[in-house]
């Protein structure tokens, strides 16, 4: 079966020496559920393959037939299903949480974990998943050269916005419909990543079909995400500490339906009588480049059936030329080195221009006095420039302008755009420095006995 062929090679932490190793994951399983066709198929297949055939339990709660019986071996101890409700991002959109809950209740082995997209701006959610103490919300004015963020390293002013207000202020400040669509997708993905990691999951599965995967790959490349194209296929993710090192116990993100086309998924759903909730029509109307890419690929596939498989196979062969310089603060994906130097060489703007010099008036006086008006954006103090911590795709998403402009459906709540909580966090509970590393840092200050 295509599903098991794509998933099971990544289940075990190490390949081992056996030709047919016993499948045993190092943690729990998490499914990212959107209510669409692919995720509905994934939910049913995972349940029927790994959870529905579990043996009955005795009075003590242990499987019958002896603890060493092969049938009692479960690949994952438990499975949680994460769903992110996005109705808070757009006025007039219906909340589908209860519809999703009713679907997941058909599978008693799964735990339902409802999330809301505004949780990305909620300190209480961040404290719950990361263990960090509550941190001030930071904000920046998009369009400022260098994407200067007040309080990126120091405590910023408290905005007093609710999570929903902060979310809508952030989205309304984005320059294009494509940027809004990309932001919603990134927020949803990172919310699920942190939630799955905090629940001790070793694997996170998405129900992305071959058709959806090909559309996502082309859309990502067209928006400047070509460097992280491998992560669109499969990745191992873990939070990065303030020192730049990854925490142990990486979360494996797998798309086991990556070889199954949308038509095959539709046939399976019809044959198995699987209910598909679907997405709100209003959300589909704002997809921007992603929507145009979908129309192009689906239309091309009608005359050339091998279109989606060719796109996926070609992108699978692509690899970055150099190692990543870190993890993007916003989308949490690998970040290419030398982005700012390259953008500095192709930029024709400088702070010597009257307009840009006047544009620095939003900075605190202490910071404004320390700036050289003839300096380039790459020479800004690191405590003020957010661009050093963004990948090319996120920087382009935040700053690109459409020739037709953007019709804002949400009024500006604040003059500056709030950022998700994980952008401001310097680690908190996630930033535990090893004792050996701490000793090396202070070694020159230690006094010998």
Automatic annotation (TrEMBL):
Q: Which domain of life is it from?
A: Eukaryota
InterPro entries (alphabetical): CTU2 (IPR019407), Rossmann-like_a/b/a_fold (IPR014729)
Q: Which GO terms describe its molecular function?
A: sulfurtransferase activity; tRNA binding
Q: For this entry, list what GO says about its biological process.
A: tRNA wobble position uridine thiolation
**Region (Disordered), start-end ranges:** 1-20
GO CC, any one term:
cytosol
What is the protein name given in its UniProt record? Cytoplasmic tRNA 2-thiolation protein 2
**Keyword vocabulary terms for this entry:** Cytoplasm, tRNA processing
Q: Does tRNA processing show up as a keyword for this record?
A: yes
């Amino acid at each position: 079966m295509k599903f098991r062929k794509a998933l099971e090679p990544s289940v075990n932490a190490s390949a081992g020496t056996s030709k047919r190793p016993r499948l045993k994951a190092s943690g729990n399983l998490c499914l990212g559920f959107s209510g669409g066709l692919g995720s509905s198929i994934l939910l049913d297949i995972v349940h029927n393959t790994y959870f529905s055939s579990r043996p009955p339990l005795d009075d003590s709660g242990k499987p019958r037939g002896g603890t060493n019986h092969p049938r009692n071996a479960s690949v994952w101890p438990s499975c949680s299903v994460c769903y992110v409700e996005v109705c808070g991002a757009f006025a007039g959109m219906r909340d589908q949480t209860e519809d999703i809950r009713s679907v997941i209740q058909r599978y008693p082995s799964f735990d339902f974990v409802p999330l809301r997209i505004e949780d990305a701006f909620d300190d209480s959610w961040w404290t719950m998943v990361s263990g960090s103490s509550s941190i001030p919300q930071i904000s920046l004015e998009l369009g400022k050269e260098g994407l200067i963020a007040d309080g990126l390293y120091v405590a910023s002013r408290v905005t007093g916005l609710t999570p929903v207000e902060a979310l809508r202020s952030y989205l309304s400040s984005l320059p294009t419909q494509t940027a809004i669509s990309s932001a919603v997708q990134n927020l949803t993905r990172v919310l699920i990543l942190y939630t799955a990691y905090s629940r001790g999951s070793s694997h996170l599965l998405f129900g992305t079909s071959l058709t959806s995967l090909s559309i996502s790959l082309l859309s990502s490349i067209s928006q400047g995400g070509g460097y992280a194209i491998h992560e669109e296929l499969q990745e191992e993710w873990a939070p990065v500490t303030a020192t730049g090192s990854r925490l142990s116990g990486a979360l494996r993100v797998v798309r086991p339906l990556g070889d199954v086309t949308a038509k095959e998924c539709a046939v399976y759903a019809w044959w198995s009588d699987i209910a598909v909730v679907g997405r709100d029509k209003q959300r589909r109307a704002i997809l921007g480049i992603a929507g145009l890419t979908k129309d192009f690929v689906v239309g091309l596939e009608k005359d050339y059936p091998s279109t989606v498989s060719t796109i996926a196979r070609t992108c699978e062969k692509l690899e970055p030329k150099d190692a990543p310089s870190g993890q993007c603060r916003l989308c949490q994906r690998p970040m290419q080195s030398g982005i700012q130097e390259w953008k500095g060489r192709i930029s024709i703007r400088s702070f010597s221009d009257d307009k840009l010099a006047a544009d620095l008036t939003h900075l605190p006086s202490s910071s404004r006095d320390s700036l050289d008006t003839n300096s380039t954006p790459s020479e800004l103090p690191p405590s003020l420039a957010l661009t050093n911590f963004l990948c090319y795709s996120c920087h382009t998403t935040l700053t690109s302008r459409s020739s037709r402009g953007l019709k804002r459906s949400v009024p500006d709540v604040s003059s500056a755009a709030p950022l998700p909580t994980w952008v401001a966090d310097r680690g908190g509970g996630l930033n535990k420095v090893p004792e050996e590393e701490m000793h090396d840092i202070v070694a020159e200050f230690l006094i010998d006995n």
